């Protein structure tokens, strides 16, 4: 009897673990003036699927859309717009954290994805890349970045030809793998949508 109960417990535990999967990440991205939900996004990380639910003012679902971010067109549509770095960790050291920035509006680089380009603008920093969006959450970048005034000793300019992979965390957050192109360091670089306050 005890052995049967042990087997039931073990099988139940294994079943719960196998069914757990990735949690669905839900975000409300637009509300009506009365505070009711207008647009809600749900991201399913196991499938890389983004779902958009649009409701009318009485709460009825009026539009539903499903995008597989593994397909180039949907992946590009996901990235379109302005993003900023949330944090950067290199070999367990936090190199940058947006929340600790004293005046993020003055120092923050803004990454603007368009249909075929990526433009980066910030304090003494600018970059321009041609972008190819590829299935399976990959981007090919070809361009150049510059830092500081070319008359100063801190001036840097570098050409870039990269193939990188992104990991989508939610509608408004992704991880950029190999952002720094280091081979001997472990890096985690997370980006969030740049929300403009009205």
The number of distinct structural domains comes to 2
**Whole-Å distance between the termini?**
66 Å
Order of helices and strands: HEEEEHEEHEEEEEEE
DSSP, total strands = 13
Mean pLDDT, to the nearest integer, reads 85
Biggest sheet: strand arrangement:
5-7-8-9-10-11-12-13
Q: How much helical structure, as a percent, in the residues?
A: 10-25%
Task: Using the alpha-carbon principal axes, give the shape.
Answer: globular
Q: What is the CATH level 1 assignment of the largest domain?
A: Mainly Beta
Number of helices: 3
Q: Which regions have little confidence, pLDDT < 50, spanning 5+ residues?
A: 5-21
Q: Could you tell me the radius of gyration in angstroms? A: 21 Å
In terms of DSSP E residues, the strand content is: over 45%
How would you classify the helix and strand content by structural class?
alpha+beta
Which labels suit this protein?
198 residues, single chain, alpha+beta, 51% strand, Lipocalin, globular, eight-stranded antiparallel beta barrel
């Amino acid at each position: 009897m005890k052995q049967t109960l042990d087997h039931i417990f073990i099988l139940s535990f294994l079943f719960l673990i196998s069914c757990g999967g990735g949690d669905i990440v839900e975000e409300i991205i637009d509300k009506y003036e009365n505070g009711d939900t207008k647009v809600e996004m749900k991201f399913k990380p196991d499938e890389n699927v983004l779902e958009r639910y649009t409701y009318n003012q009485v709460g009825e679902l009026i539009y539903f859309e499903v995008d597989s971010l593994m397909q180039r067109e949907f992946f590009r549509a996901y990235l379109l717009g302005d993003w900023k770095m949330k944090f950067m960790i290199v070999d367990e050291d936090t190199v940058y954290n947006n929340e600790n920035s004293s005046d993020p509006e003055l120092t923050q680089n803004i990454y603007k994805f368009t249909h075929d380009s990526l433009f980066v603008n910030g304090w003494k920093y600018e970059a321009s890349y041609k972008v190819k969006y590829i299935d399976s959450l990959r981007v090919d970048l070809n361009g150049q970045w510059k830092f500081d005034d070319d008359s100063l000793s801190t001036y840097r300019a570098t050409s870039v030809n990269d193939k990188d992979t992104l990991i989508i965390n939610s509608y408004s957050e992704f991880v950029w793998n190999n952002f720094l192109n280091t081979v001997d360091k472990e890096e985690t670089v997370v980006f969030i949508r740049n929300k403009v306050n009205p």
